[in-house]
Amino acid sequence: MQCILNAQRSDGSWEIYYNAPAGDMNATVECYAALRAVGMPPEAVPVRKARQWILTHGGLAKIRVFTRYWLALIGEWSWGHTPHIPPEIIAFPTWFPLNIYNFASWARATLLPLSILSARRAVRPLPADRRLEELFPRGRSAVDYSLPRKGRLISWQRFFLMADRFLHAYQDLGFTPGRGAAVKVCLEWIIRHQDADGAWGGIQPPWIYSLMALSAEGYPVSHPVISKGLDALNHHWSYARNGGLHIQASESPVWDTVLALMAMQDCGRGYRQSPSMQQAVDWVLTQQVKAAGDWQIKVKGVQPGGWAFERANRFYPDIDDTAVALIVLARLRSAYEDRARLEEAIQRATEWIMAMQCRRGGWAAFDKDNDKALLTKIPFCDFGEALDPPSVDVTAHVVEAFGRLGLDRSHTVVRRAVDYIRSEQEPEGSWFGRWGVNHIYGTAAVLPALKAVGEDMTAAYVRRAADWIVAHQNADGGWGESCASYMDDAWRGKGESTPSQTGWALMALLAVGSADNRDAIARGVDYLITRQQMGTWDEPQYTGTGFPGYGVGARTDLRAGDLAERLQQGRELSRGFMINYNLYRHYFPLMALGRARRFLVAEGLRTK
Fold first, then answer.
1. How many other C-beta atoms can be found within 10 angstroms of the C-beta atom of residue 360?
2. Pick the CATH number of 78-123+153-245 from 3.20.20.120, 3.20.20.10, 1.50.10.20, 2.40.440.10
3. What whole-number distance in Å separates Cα of residue 344 and Cα of residue 458?
4. Nearest residue to 587 via CA among 268, 347, 259
5. Which residue, 18, 22, 11, is CA-closest to 50?
6. Start-end of H helices in 121-233
7. Secondary structure of the chain: what % helix, strand, coil (to 5)?
8. CA 194, CA 172: separation in Å to the nearest integer?
């Protein structure tokens, strides 16, 4: 409870990222429900202020699907007014558009336990004195519970809304042949997909919903699967801070380790003289995923060889972590003693990544060609991006890894990837960043990648990107971009300076290396040096994203008409969560400073 109270804004709301321009309705309703559920009375100041904000900003009629699910689970919203997810979806064949493997890995792992909860209409009602009556000031019957009617009269959105009504009517009959068998298969899938640490999918939503689904089906707390899932909460998934207990949305030990290693390499730390680097590299090699995963449903005949983001998520290795691991390992070829072990890891990872290349030439995070736009029309999918299409930032990291391994644009895989990257460039010169905020991140991923594979860094499109970076440098010498840029184009490349985003921008300019960029580089370096405190930097801002949709104006694998329609409907295209990576403030500035030192020495501006 204390961590929720610590995060409340002065206006009574809660925000979804640091210093957001406004509170968020869904976060505020969910925090309000949590405070009431643990016994805080309606007249308590934090609850009263939150309620006032909710009611003056449209009330419960404005909440998204996932908030409706949470309220339904505690008896404050009818399951009949949530998108119905039939567990029979588990039986759809792979060729069928609504097959679970056409959903992104995070959506898939969340959808199946929710289908059980939805089918059973599971409820753990709040005690009578903790119900949320005060959020229904005109009575519960006066609330518009209907799902938003989006889209044209004849459209897929309307079709799926009609289908949802049919599914609810079918459920209401009380006679659902085969339902028990479908639930059983879903349960088997869930149990089979539990991670080694007890969680599911390496992220919080499927972990929590899976525990709820198992409980709803009668699994006791003492059951090994539930016991293991709950035990994860007491270990690395939670941490104490400022008097409160926080539950992480995910964790990133592999990602943080390979990026920390890259920072040490950029700063000239010798591997053979560094026991910490040796231990870290050995640990990374033990984390290579060599077991079967969901990606094999669509990609056959390739041995596993990727790395996951988290510590225990063997079902969903991701291309981004694998690419960065390859960059690090490729730079160790002359230093790592067990060369055979190193080369075997590199070969497995390289073959796996090449097999995962999407038809347009780019790479997604977890799957191949996971881009069926039809799925975005389902009411369930208003919570965020349910697809995993290729993104420029992931693709750029792969290209940089291949460059480190000696491949260049003459290689077919690399050439297709570079063509994809060029096709995604925005008119003003930047690239959208799907997994980091935002156009600074995307552009900073692309330019070092292009250099690594031998691209002409004086090419017009490269210069346009560098000019965009320079044009968005802040007066203090740093760079920053607000999470608001995912919803509003006016925020592209704009925001208060942060150490991590300044590091990204510097690495972009250093890759181009033009004399025209010297002043911007010098000012950026000065920003980092003067703001370093006790060996590192402070960064309360959120510069990472989790499962974001494509922002306004960003290019996507969805047809232009689909994107235009979604924008016309006023739908937020980025409802993923924003992330403050605690280590970004440490290793990205180090990477930039290490590379800047080499650049300045090469330019004759420094002697060491």
1. 18
2. 1.50.10.20
3. 36
4. 259
5. 11
6. 156-172, 179-192, 204-216, 224-233
7. 50, 5, 45
8. 32
**How far is CA 395 from its chain centroid?**
15
Q: How far apart are CA 41 and CA 38, in angstroms?
A: 9
Cβ atoms 504, 479 nearer than 8 A: yes
Residue 375 neighbours by CB under 8 Å, 6+ apart: 97, 98, 102, 103, 381, 386, 387
CA 547 to chain CA centroid, nearest Å: 3
What fold is seen in the domain 253-466+542-578?
Glycosyltransferase (1.50.10)
Torsion of CA 21, 24, 25, 29, to 10 degrees: -130
CB atoms within 10 A of CB 525: 21
CB 249 within 8 A of CB 110: no
Q: Contact 435/396 with Cβ under 8 angstroms?
A: no
pLDDT tens-digit map of 508-566: 999 999 888 999 999 999 999 999 999 999 999 999 998 765 543 344 443 333 433 43
With 80 as the cut, is the pLDDT of residue 155 above it?
no
Inter-residue contact 42 to 51 (CB < 8 Å) = yes
Q: Are 386 and 103 in contact (CB under 8 A)?
A: yes
Of all residues in the chain, the percent with pLDDT exceeding 90 is: 78
Cα 499–chain centre separation: 21
Distance spanning both ends of the chain, measured CA to CA:
52
Instruction: At 355, give phi and psi (nearest 5°).
Output: -70, -20
Is the four-CA dihedral 439, 441, 442, 447 of positive or negative sign?
Answer: positive
Task: Indicate the pTM of the whole model.
Answer: 0.93
Q: Identity (one letter) of the amino acid at 420? A: Y
Per-residue confidence (pLDDT) for residue 296, from 0 to 100: 96
What are the tens digits of pLDDT across the range 65-112?
899 999 999 999 999 999 999 999 999 999 999 999 999 999 999 999
Query: Encoding tokens for residue 357?
Result: 């290349």
User: Among all residues, which ones are annotated catalytic?
Assistant: 320
* Cβ neighbours of residue 151 closer than 8 Å, sequence gap 6 or more: 157, 158, 377, 565, 569
Beta strands in 397-458 (DSSP E): none
Contact (CB, 8 A) for 79 and 160 = no
Tokens at 598, concatenated: 């080499």
Q: Give the residue range(s) of CATH 1.50.10.20 domains in the chain.
A: 78-123+153-245, 253-466+542-578
Q: What is the mean pLDDT of the chain?
A: 91
Q: Which pair of structure tokens corresponds to residue 423?
A: 């096709």
**Residue 157's pLDDT band (boundaries 50, 70, 90)?**
confident
